[in-house]
Amino acid sequence: MTAVFHRSLAHDYPVAVSGEGIVIRDSQGRSYIDASGGAAVSCLGHSHPDVLAAMHAQLDSLAYAHTSFFTTEVAEELAEMLVADAPAGMSHVYFLSGGSEAIETALKLARQYFVEIGQPQRRHIIGRRQSYHGNTLGALAVGHNAGRRVQYAPLLIETHHVSPTYGYRHRAAGETPEAYGARLAAELAEEIERLGPDSVIAFIAETVGGATCGAITAPPGYFRAVREICDQHGILLILDEVMCGMGRTGTLHACEQEGVAPDLMTIAKGLGGGFAPIGAVLVADKVFQAFDRGSKLFQHGHTYLGHALACAAGLAVQKVIRRDNLLANVRAQGAHLTRRLAERFGNHHHVGDIRGRGLFQAIEIVADRGTKETFDPALKLHARIKAEAMARGLMVYPSGGTADGIRGDHVLIAPPFIVDAGDIDTIVERLAEAVDASLPPAG
Ligand code: PMP
C-alpha cells in the first residue's frame, strides 16, 4: 500500500534509496545503471561530492529568500555564467523550478513583449506535432504529444501545429535532407501567412526532439530557414532545450550546432542535474529591452523562482561540467554509443532507426523494417522494454506507440556525462537483451 499518488496505479515502483555515480540502488539491494539520467536529467550522475558540498554550504547560510524581496549572490553568479555562455544576443536569465514552468514563462514573456512594443493584436503560437513541452496546460497546448494531450483537449488554449522534423518517417523517397528541411520551413511560412503574419507571437520547437519522438534532429538548414522566416515577420523563436540542452548533445546548447540563436530559450533538466528542481528561460536582449523601456514589470512569478539552494546546485553542476571538460566526454562517448548501437542494432529486424547526437540517442522499434509498420500500440512494447531493462538493472526511457498511430515505440538513451566506454558497452548489451525479451513471438 502506498499513499503516494503514483503516475501509474497499475505498477509497483521499487524504492530508490541511494545513488552514486551512474548507479541507483533500491531497498532490495538491487542496482540500476541510470542510462537515461532519469528523464535526461542526471548529467553528473548521483551524489557528486562537489555539488553536495556546494549545496551544504548554501544551506548553512540561506536556503531561500523570496524574489519579491531579495536577489541572492548565487542566483546572480549562475545567471552571469549562463549569459556568458549563451547564444549570441541573450542577456538575461529568468529562473524557475522546472521545464513546464519555463515554457509557461517563455510563452508569457513572448506575449507581453508584443504588448510592450505596441503590437497587442498578436495572439497565435505555432508549435509542432509530435513535440513535448511539458504537462501544464499552456505547455500541453503548444506541444503535441497526442497521448498526454488528448483527454485535456477541451481545456487547452488554441494553438497551431506544423509538421515535426521526422525524416525517418516523413522524408519523401528521393528527397534530400536539405530539400526536406526547406519543405518543412515552407510549411511554417504558409501557416504564418494563413494566420496573418502580424497576428503571430512565436514559433516554438525542441531543437532536438525528446520525449515524444526520441532524439529527433532537424535536417540541415531547417532551423536557419525557420529563423529567417520568424525574423521576416517579427515573430519570436522559442527553442525548448529543457531536455536536449545544457550539454546533452555535445555542445552546451543544441542550437549551436544549428547555427541559430533563439529569442527565448528554455532550459531545465541538465541545468541542476537533478540535485535540485531548477529551470530557466534565457532571454534575448531585444526582449529584455522591451520590458526595460516599457512597463518594467513582467506580470508573472512563482514562489520558488530563483530558489537559493536550487541555484547553488545549478551553479555547482555547471562549474563541474566546465572544470572537468565533460562536454568533450559527451562527444567522445556519444560517438562510441553511436558505433555500439550501429553494431548491435544496425541489422536488427525490429530496429528501424538509430538516431540522435552526443549522449542523447534513440532506437525506434518497428514490426517491419521494410514498411516501417509499427507494433500494435496495445502491446505497449515501450513499457515492456522498460520493465525488461529494469529487470536487468538498466534504466532507459522508452515511449511511443500511443494515440497518434504514426510513430513507433522508441527507446531514449541519455546517460550521465561521466560515463566511460565500458559503461556504454554494458548499457547497449543490457538494452539489446531487454529489447529482444520484450518482442512478441514471431509469426
Ligand atoms: N520541454 C521538454 C522538451 C521536455 O522534455 C520536458 C520534460 N520531459 C519539459 C519541457 C517539461 O519539463 P518538466 O517535466 O520539468 O516540467
From TrEMBL:
Cofactors (names):
pyridoxal 5'-phosphate
PANTHER family in the record, alphabetically? AMINOTRANSFERASE, AMINOTRANSFERASE CLASS-III
- Name assigned to this protein: Aspartate aminotransferase family protein
Indicate whether Methyltransferase appears among the record's keywords.
Answer: no
Q: Give the record's GO CC terms.
A: cytosol
Q: Which domain of life is it from?
A: Bacteria
Q: Which UniProt keywords apply?
A: Aminotransferase, Pyridoxal phosphate, Transferase
